[in-house]
Amino acid sequence: MNMNHIELDRDRCEGHGTCEQVAPAVYKLDDEGELEILADPLPEKLTKAAEAGARVCPVAALRVVGDA
Ligand code: SF4
């Protein structure tokens, strides 16, 4: 089965949390403002949400990649 993954560029991420607002099942900011990826590898049913969250990141720090 093909699995998708989320790539996070921590150097870029500024902790805006926009991704978390759009896809709270996938992205979570911790108390220090570090982004946690809650679902990696990414189950099929969360892929759309993960992509939506990646799209709204203002600094383009997120990428959803497939291993197919
Ligand atoms: S939207 Fe982008 S900059 Fe903001 S927390 Fe998510 S990955 Fe980081």
From TrEMBL:
GO terms for molecular function: 3 iron, 4 sulfur cluster binding; metal ion binding. Residues 4-32 form the 4Fe-4S ferredoxin-type domain. Its cofactor is [3Fe-4S] cluster. Keywords: 3Fe-4S, Electron transport, Iron, Iron-sulfur, Metal-binding, Transport. InterPro entries: 4Fe4S_Fe-S-bd, Fe-S_cluster_ET. Gene3D superfamilies: 3.30.70.20. This is Ferredoxin. It comes from Rhodococcus wratislaviensis (Tsukamurella wratislaviensis).
